[in-house]
TrEMBL record:
Region of interest: Aspartate: 197-200
Annotated ranges, domain Aminoacyl-transfer RNA synthetases class-II family profile: 146-440
EC number annotated for this UniProt entry: 6.1.1.23
Any one GO cellular component localisation term in the record: cytoplasm
Protein name in the entry: Aspartate--tRNA(Asp/Asn) ligase
Binding of L-aspartate, residues: 173, 219, 334, 375
Subcellular location: Cytoplasm
InterPro entries to which the protein is assigned, alphabetical: Aa-tRNA-synt_II (IPR004364), aa-tRNA-synth_II (IPR006195), aa-tRNA-synth_II/BPL/LPL (IPR045864), Asp-tRNA-ligase_1 (IPR004524), Asp-tRNA-ligase_1_N (IPR047089), Asp/Asn-tRNA-synth_IIb (IPR002312), AspRS_core (IPR047090), GAD-like_sf (IPR004115)
Family: Belongs to the class-II aminoacyl-tRNA synthetase family. Type 1 subfamily.
Gene assigned in the entry: aspS
Species the sequence originates in: Candidatus Vogelbacteria bacterium CG10_big_fil_rev_8_21_14_0_10_51_16
Reactions it catalyzes: tRNA(Asx) + L-aspartate + ATP = L-aspartyl-tRNA(Asx) + AMP + diphosphate
Keyword field contains Cytoplasm: yes
């Protein structure tokens, strides 16, 4: 018999079916034994009637999380037994055959409920079990549905999906890089990309015109509720021959249509999305990412907004890792490729603090879910910005590939990169971005399921020409 998914059972009322999945709950009422069976699509109650004596004995040993297959008849439940809160609360399966595919140890924590009261480290260590929760499976599916929607939407609008390198060069997004030793060039390193920023701009020079990528980005910065440690996924977009308005319209259309198509239970508070200048947002709300929900108790309200007209520069702080010399007073408020507002270009020479940048931040329910800008496409202005942020000649030389590329006919261009994990967190009302990532790192940078990072053998280090110095006892493989 062909296996039926649990969310298809309504098509089989009073018909025989075969279902496969995990036992989520077993209830023994003496004569009657009930199993709640769960698969990726949902769960359903199965009942073993006393008339099937043979089943009763094999059912004795079965416990939660055992993998089973059940053949049975789908019955509509009598009116008084209907549970309206459950998708399958109006049916149940009368088992006619029951086979254990695999037993399970008792899981280290309860897999029913939302799991929020369980120690997060423990949940992450056994993530393969934690992900069995319907809430977590929903989150994984939401991520996949968003990816599919984005691909179809953008591809239908002349966008080309391009993959860019993971082993690459340091990128100036303001965080620390992850370095990977280059065996073939001893003493040198690749950096994992903090974003594909430079590659997407080079793709505009190449004439791709409309690019996107569901890009993995790597940043060695402290985790927060809305930022996972280590890596995250961005919907990276870049467009040529556009003005800021075109980027806002594209992104607003994409996210509005996506929410309406995939998450119809959600409602967007205001359309078109409100637009705020940076100054007005800070004066009125005390933040550049205000939460504009009308009713914060409503889990289905989505308050999107744009914040515009950011200052191009902020004061440089000790936390800036964007490779400036540390002597300059300015740091880019977005990144060093953001174009100054055309009306403010002359202020670069007189009062850079007054220069506005063509930056746009996408805000959702008080989270910055994406940022982008129109880029500088004039090598002279780019050099001026490098000077203002304190680049010395060696540092400038690191970006010669960009200046060089820009001397071969670069179109005006700009883009945006909404963070997919952060968007899903806000959309699904999750408390932490880790709830929407399959295998996130713990706060101290460990992948608990696999015990990553691991030490390297002496031979591996030797081959790479690397000596590990023991600073504290926790360093693996130190000498
Ligand atoms: N690369 C930028 C970031 O990661 C986004 C952009 O400017 O498109 O924030």
């Amino acid at each position: 018999m062909k296996r039926v998914f649990i969310d298809e059972l309504h098509q089989y009322i009073e018909k025989p079916v075969l279902i496969k999945g995990w036992v989520s709950v077993r209830r023994d009422h003496g004569k009657l034994v009930f199993f709640d069976i769960r698969d990726v699509s949902g769960h359903v109650q199965t009942v073993l009637l006393p008339s099937h004596k043979d089943l009763k004995s094999s059912a004795e040993e079965i416990r939660s999380e055992w993998v089973v297959e059940i053949e049975g008849l789908v019955h509509a439940r009598p009116e008084k037994l209907v549970n309206k809160d459950e998708p399958n609360g109006d049916i149940e399966i009368e088992a006619t055959s029951l086979t254990v595919i695999n037993p399970s140890l008792t899981p280290p924590f309860d897999l029913r409920g939302d799991g929020m009261d369980i120690n997060e480290e423990l949940r992450l260590k056994h993530r393969h079990l934690d992900l069995r929760r319907p809430r977590m499976l929903r989150n994984m599916r939401a991520q996949a549905m968003v990816g599919k929607f984005v691909r179809e939407y953008l591809t239908a609008r002349r966008f080309t999906e391009v993959s860019t390198p993971i082993l690459t060069k340091t990128t100036p997004e303001g965080a620390r890089d992850f370095l990977v030793p280059a065996r073939k060039v001893p003493g040198s390193f690749y950096a994992l990309p903090q974003s594909p920023q430079q590659y997407k701009q080079l793709l505009m020079v190449a004439g791709i015109e409309r690019y996107f990528q569901l890009a993995r980005c790597f940043r060695d910065e402290d985790p927060r509720a809305d930022r996972a440690y280590g890596e995250f996924t961005q919907l990276d977009i870049e467009m040529s021959f556009v003005e800021q308005e075109d980027i806002l319209v594209l992104a607003e259309g994409l996210f509005t249509d996506m929410v309406e198509a995939l998450f119809p239970e959600k409602h967007i508070s205001e359309k078109p999305w409100p637009r705020l200048t940076h100054r007005d947002a800070v004066v009125k709300y005390g933040t550049d990412k205000p939460d504009l929900r009308k009713n914060k108790e409503d889990p289905n309200e989505l308050a999107f907004a744009w914040t515009l007209d950011f200052p191009l520069f902020t004061e440089q702080s000790e936390d800036d890792f964007f490779h400036g010399s540390g002597k300059a007073t300015f740091a880019p408020s977005h990144h060093m490729f953001t174009s100054p507002h055309p009306e403010d270009v002359t202020l670069l020479d007189t009062d850079p603090t007054l220069v506005r940048g063509l930056q746009h931040d996408m805000v959702l329910n008080g989270f910055e879910v994406g940022g982008g800008s129109i880029r500088i496409h004039d090598a002279k202005i780019q050099k001026k910005v490098f000077d203002l942020i304190g680049f010395n000649e060696t540092q400038k030389a690191e970006f010669n590939h960009m200046l060089d590329a820009f001397s071969y006919g670069v179109p005006p261009h700009g883009g945006i990169a909404p963070g997919i994990d952060r968007f899903l967190m806000a959309l699904l009302g999750e408390q932490s971005v880790r709830e929407v990532i399959a295998f996130p790192m713990t706060g101290n940078g460990r992948l608990a399921t696999m015990g990553v990072p691991t030490s390297a053998s002496f031979e591996q280090l030797q081959e790479l020409g690397i000596i590990a110095i023991k600073k504290n006892k926790e360093l693996p493989n130190a000498i």
